[in-house]
Amino acid sequence: MTDLTVSVADGVALVTLNRPERRNAYTAQMGELLNRAYRDCDNDDGVRAIVLTGAGDAFCAGADFGTATNPFDTPAEGSAFTAAPTDPAAFELRTR
């Protein structure tokens, strides 16, 4: 089982946090997977919207500090993921 699932139907990507046993608590691996899923959706012209949800009875309980790695540790070499705050001015508003 993976910490994140993605399905696309009728132009809508459904991204599901998939750790219901931990109330979908956020991990560094989940951050990497979310980053990849968002990039894949952005690169797919058939995706017009993204819905982010959580499996089970919780959306996300917050950061999971009960794992071996801190969810906000420095990412692995070559990773594009960062949990550090981002300057909103760095984002470009895009319309299709």
* Helicity level: 10-25%
How many individual β-strands?
Answer: 3
Given as residue ranges, the uncertain stretches (5+ residues, pLDDT < 50) are: none
The SS-based structural class is alpha+beta
Q: What would the principal axes of the Cα set say about the shape?
A: globular
| N- to C-terminal distance | 34 Å
Can you count the helices? 1
- Spatial order of strands in the largest sheet: 1-2-3
Radius of gyration, Cα only, in angstroms? 14 Å
Mean pLDDT: 81
Largest sheet geometry: 3 strands, mixed
Beta-strand residue percentage = 15-25%
Structure description:
By secondary structure, this protein is an alpha+beta fold. The protein is 17% helix and 19% strand. The protein has one helix spanning 28-43, and strands spanning 4-9, 12-17, 49-54. A three-stranded mixed β-sheet has the order 1-2-3, with helices on one face. The longest helix is centred in the middle third of the chain and has 16 residues, at 28-43.
